[in-house]
Design a protein that fits this description.
Largest sheet of chain A: 6 strands, mixed
Number of helices of chain B: 0
Number of strands of chain B: 11
Helix content of chain B: under 10%
Helix content of chain A: under 10%
Distance between the termini of chain B: 37 Å
Structural class of chain A: mainly beta
Distance between the termini of chain A: 41 Å
Largest interface: A-B, 21 and 26 residues
Oligomer: heterodimer
Structural class of chain B: mainly beta
Strand content of chain B: over 45%
């Protein structure tokens, strides 16, 4: 089955700097890659997703890139703000939401 | 529009006791999921429903866990009897269909003493 590895497990950056979180997946048939943000004690919230027919997607300060050949995808957050502090999870699936496998999470801390 | 609603938010029980969690998905979402989230880890799928049919329960420990989704809307997840290792957050999620985007509820944090 699918296996998703996520790095780093913790990341600390200065406010205003960029943050990058990387994930690798094992199943070459995977074609859907969402990212979730989970603040302490709250529900995971979908922040951006990408399908395998595109290589990059942007939404304001957030972007995701996908390299199908290398089977890895990354989340990029620019101009980080304190409210970006949270745990971020990547996931991969061969078919939308039905077979999502999540990474272990990255705890991002933005230092003022 | 209301999101996925779960109750209770917190539950503390003694081991060997039964416990049940309730979930109401986003209106119109045919696919419902129960996930388990251990501390510091990503969610892991327990069971997936399409309407009232459980189409993927391969990760559900069937000796003590059961679930139902009568009428294809609300769902309950039950543990009987609970064990210490069941302490975790139980997340419900829904999607419009099996290929749609996944939306989570706030979860039930279970503590088994």
């Amino acid at each position: 089955g699918e296996n998703v590895e996520q790095h780093p497990s913790t990341l600390s950056v200065q406010e205003g700097d960029s943050a990058v979180i990387k994930c690798t997946y094992s199943d070459s048939a995977s074609n859907y890659f969402p990212w979730y943000k989970q603040e302490l004690g709250k529900r995971p919230q979908l922040i951006i997703d990408i399908r395998s027919n595109v290589g990059e997607k942007k939404d304001q300060r957030i972007a995701v890139t996908l390299n199908k050949t290398a089977k890895h995808f990354s989340l990029h957050i620019t101009e980080t703000q304190p409210e970006d502090s949270a745990v971020y999870f990547c996931a991969a699936s061969i078919a939308g939401a039905q077979k999502l496998v999540f990474g272990q999470g990255t705890r991002l801390t933005i230092n003022p | 529009e209301a999101g996925v609603v779960q109750s209770p938010r917190y539950k503390i029980i003694e081991k060997k006791q039964p416990v049940a969690f309730w979930c109401n998905p986003i209106s119109g979402h045919n696919t419902l999921y129960w996930y388990l989230q251990n501390l510091g880890q990503g969610p892991e799928l327990l069971i997936r429903y399409e309407n009232e049919e459980a189409v993927d329960d391969s990760q559900l420990p069937k000796d003590r866990f059961s679930a139902e989704r009568l009428k294809g809307v609300d769902s309950t997840l039950k543990i009987q009897p609970a064990e210490l290792g069941d302490s975790a957050v139980y997340l419900c999620a829904s999607s419009l269909n099996r290929d749609g985007k996944l939306f989570f509820g706030s979860g039930t944090q279970l503590s088994v003493l």
